[in-house]
Amino acid sequence: MRVLLVDDEQELVETLAERLGIRGIEARWETTGDGALKRIDQENFDLAVLDVKIPGISGIDLHKKMKAQCPGLKFIFMTGHGSHDDFTAGSAETGSDYYLLKPVNIEELIDKMTRLITQ
Q1: How far apart are the C-alpha atoms of 82 and 79, rounded to whole Å?
Q2: Per-residue pLDDT reduced to its tens digit, 23-59
Q3: What's the CATH class of domain 2-117?
Q4: Could you tell me if 55 and 75 are in contact, meaning their C-beta atoms sit under 8 angstroms apart?
Q5: Which of 34, 82, 88, 115 is most buried per CB count within 10 Å?
Q6: 3-class DSSP string for the chain
């Protein structure tokens, strides 16, 4: 499984990528929407994990651009500013049932990634 992590918190995505790598999941990361769009143009990924609030672009808008660029790409969203209402609104707008609150539990993330890829 190849995963792209996108969050403006560099330490978070570096740590998540490292922890996923230990578990045999190939993960790359970006801290900007533009960086993520360039990365998916250069490399193939099975799924992207996007922060909902990225400076310069929302995770929802980035999702739309990435989906247009790579229609088969699957998505999980995460936020540090979340609530059940955010989950409901975000899920309705993106069609995603995969929305995690930070700090992200690595086992929950891997479980949701595996479920999404095997759907």
Answers
A1: 6
A2: 999 999 999 999 999 999 999 999 999 988 888 888 8
A3: alpha beta
A4: no
A5: 82
A6: CEEEEECCCHHHHHHHHHHHHHCCCEEEEECCHHHHHHHHHHCCCCEEEEECEECCEEHHHHHHHHHHHCCCCEEEEEECCCCHHHHHHHHHHHCCCCEEECCCCHHHHHHHHHHHHCC
Where do the domains of the chain lie?
A: 2-117
- Mind listing the pLDDT tens digit for each residue in 78-115? 887 655 565 555 555 656 657 888 888 999 999 999 99
* Tokens, residue 65: 């651009």
